[in-house]
Write a structure and sequence with these properties.
The protein has 140 residues and is of the alpha+beta class. It is 27% helix and 32% strand.
Length: 140
């Protein structure tokens, strides 16, 4: 992984940690190589969060405008087992640095390796609503 890519990923982790620090008194960024990037506590429950930062901006070949944001959901290229297993991560935080927005999704062991969000969704998402919706789904 290039230093620029690592820098983008780390910036996303800090952006998510900053957001979470407004929701929780306990937020910790974990060392590189851990299963999760951030652990935090909400309502006396600890959660493990994996941050994915926008890296691929798919463009429409006709209009040359951004049509969606694509995130690779796998673990880093330097790990032998690239997929996450149940218990390693509770939720994903998909961070878009350009719009300063975050979409939270609960971890589902469904073998997807990528997820894509339309540009209009990423631009207009209410990160706080997304976060509490994901936490509510985890608690049920």
């Amino acid at each position: 992984m290039s230093r620029a890519t690592e820098r983008i990923g780390r910036a996303g982790e800090y952006a998510v940690a900053s957001f979470l620090s407004l929701q929780s008194d306990t937020v910790h960024i974990l060392p590189h190589g851990s299963h999760a990037d951030i652990i935090f506590e909400i309502n006396d429950t600890m959660y493990k969060c994996q941050v994915k930062t926008a890296a691929i901006k798919k463009m429409c070949h006709k209009t040359h405008k951004r049509v969606n944001w694509c995130f690779d959901m796998r673990r880093g290229a330097n790990t032998k087992k690239r997929d996450y297993k149940k218990g390693m991560v509770d939720l994903y935080a998909f961070c878009c640095l350009e719009y300063n927005t975050i979409i939270f999704k609960i971890f589902e062991n469904d073998k997807r390796t990528k997820i894509t969000f339309k540009d209009c969704l990423m631009k207009n998402i209410n990160s706080k609503e997304s976060f509490y919706k994901a936490i509510t789904l985890l608690d049920n």
